TrEMBL record:
GO MF assignments: (S)-2-(5-amino-1-(5-phospho-D-ribosyl)imidazole-4-carboxamido) succinate lyase (fumarate-forming) activity; N6-(1,2-dicarboxyethyl)AMP AMP-lyase (fumarate-forming) activity
Family per similarity comment: Belongs to the lyase 1 family. Adenylosuccinate lyase subfamily.
Pathway the protein takes part in: Purine metabolism; IMP biosynthesis via de novo pathway; 5-amino-1-(5-phospho-D-ribosyl)imidazole-4-carboxamide from 5-amino-1-(5-phospho-D-ribosyl)imidazole-4-carboxylate: step 2/2; Purine metabolism; AMP biosynthesis via de novo pathway; AMP from IMP: step 2/2
Species for this entry: Fructilactobacillus florum 8D
The protein's name: Adenylosuccinate lyase
Length: 431
């Protein structure tokens, strides 16, 4: 994990210290379950609960000899114990501990991510309400189309993020899972009640059936969901980047005192935060491929997924946490320029009202084809000669014969396009 894109909560969750701590938590929970079955004496369990410790440096030293991290861990923990050490790792295989502890760490990461998502959803909701009626240009193909509001744009983001949250909560439940079922998932050397106890205690879901490992389609779905969240953030950030262009300049990432936009050009104010979001989204999407390829393992398990997961799980959760936090700040501090938005309504000489004129002519009895062919040359003339489309419409004899001056004025009123904003907000849940 790059320090530049790592926030403290995720750094702690994916630290080696927390890795071994969650392993130890699982090991002790397993022994507690054995104790409840009458296998481990009360005194031995009490000693394990009180004295079991680990030392990360010592584990590293032992692993250099064993070339097996779980063996190194259990041997180090055993050194902190007396005769009761014989119960450490009793009846289980490495992945019983590692996969269950990984579910525990993903659970911790998901608490952080859910809080990030909730905060961003709240920010979008607040900003959508603030700019609900702030008129601006709607654009298709990058070209001015018809009026909309900045609030409606934000309402679309709100709806998309709600879908992201729904997907995330489902995928998160999938990976917050544990298994204590032995070397090939048959519970040959461990009672199934041990698994139930451990998972219940750690608030994990006991997977209904496993091999030696939890099924990796769970993790593939999870990584894909994080990638989709990152892609939503890229979608939002790309819009900010486009609207900040000098030719549009309807919004701008807040520029702090002392901030510099360019080493060469003192005037530059660049959307660097949004560009950062877009770049990191590409990285998170790239982690999907190994996640999907990890699903296919030999027979009841091989180790090919392990090395990839040591990278893709910390990286994806850490990057998405960073992205959500950073974009929340971008949107909270975003500078919005309603006057420029209104000014941009006029830059195409009123051509944005061409459909409204078209429909009024149809309402008067003209065929759609005839109305379209009448209006289109006037739009071309306005664009090519830099003259007002409304003037050309008002001066056209065929149009004047059908539309009164008041009806023409009405066709060029942007309020017509915004009359359903309140209804849309209600549908989205922003009333």
């Amino acid at each position: 994990m790059l320090e530049r894109y790592t926030r403290a909560p995720m750094a702690q969750i994916w630290s080696k210290q927390n890795q071994y701590q969650t392993w130890l938590t699982v090991e002790i929970a397993i022994d507690e379950a054995w104790n409840r079955l009458g296998v481990i004496p009360d005194a031995d369990l009490a000693a394990i609960q009180e004295k079991a410790r680990f030392d990360t440096k010592e584990i590293d030293r032992i692993e250099a000899v064993t070339h097996h991290d779980v063996v190194a861990f259990t041997r180090d923990v055993s050194e902190s114990l007396g005769p009761e050490k014989r119960w450490i790792h009793y009846g289980v295989t490495s992945t019983d501990v590692v996969d269950t502890a990984q579910g525990l760490r993903l659970q911790q990461a998901n608490v952080v991510l859910q809080d990030d998502l909730d905060q961003l959803l709240s920010t979008i909701k607040r900003q959508a309400g603030r700019y609900k009626d702030t008129v601006m240009m709607g654009r298709t193909h990058g070209v001015q189309a018809e009026p909309t509001t900045f609030g409606l744009k934000l309402a679309r983001w709100y709806s998309e993020l709600k879908r992201d949250i729904e997907r995330f909560q489902h995928a998160a439940r999938g990976v917050e899972a544990g298994k204590i079922s032995g070397a090939v998932g048959t519970f040959a050397n461990i009672d199934p009640s041990v698994e139930r106890y451990v998972c219940d205690k750690l608030d994990l879901r006991a997977q209904e059936i496993t091999s030696q490992v939890l099924p990796r389609d769970l993790h593939a779905e999870y990584l894909a969901t994080l990638a989709l969240i990152a892609t939503s953030l890229e979608n939002f950030a790309t819009e900010i980047r486009s609207l900040q262009r000098s030719e549009i300049h309807e919004v701008e990432e807040h520029f702090n005192p002392g901030q510099k936009g360019s080493s060469a050009m003192p005037h530059k104010r660049n959307p660097i935060g949004s560009e950062n979001i877009c770049g990191l989204a590409r990285t998170v999407r790239g982690l999907i491929v190994p996640a999907y390829e990890n699903v296919t393992l030999w027979h009841e398990r091989d180790i090919s997924h392990s090395s990839a997961e040591r990278i893709i799980l910390p990286e994806s959760t850490t990057l998405v946490d960073y992205m959500l936090h950073r974009f929340n700040r971008i949107l909270t501090e975003l500078d919005v320029f309603p006057e420029q938005m209104r000014a941009n309504l006029k830059v195409t000489y009123g051509l944005i009202y061409s459909q409204r004129v078209l429909l009024k002519l149809i309402d008067k009895g003209m065929s759609r084809e005839a109305a379209y062919d009448l209006i289109q040359p006037l739009t071309a003339q306005a664009w090519e000669q830099h003259c007002q489309f409304k003037t050309l419409v008002s001066d056209n004899e065929r149009i004047k014969a059908l539309l009164s001056p008041a009806e023409i004025d009405d066709a060029f009123d942007y309020h017509y396009h915004l009359r359903h904003v309140d209804e849309i907000f209600r549908r989205v849940g922003l009333a």
